[in-house]
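Example record

One chain of 85 residues, shown exactly as stored in the release files.
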Amino acid sequence: MQHNTDVGRIEAAQNTAERLKSTNVLTPREADAYAFRSIYNIPRGETADALGVSKSRVDNALRSAKDAIAGARILINMLDDTEIE
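Predicted structure tokens for this chain:
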């Protein structure tokens, strides 16, 4: 299969995924899927090939990552609204 995404973008997505993993908010698979698909807009098939998983696993991980990020945002907003002495 021929891919159109340049190697630099793939490497950038991998580096970003590693940074996301270090937060412990996302699982490694979620971090990979989110970095490749949502941040770098790497096509679904290319993401699946680069990560060595099926397209459906990419889809599931991306959906789960978005849910985790939404939950983290809600928590941050709640903490921001709470006065902590």
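Notes: The mean pLDDT is 93.
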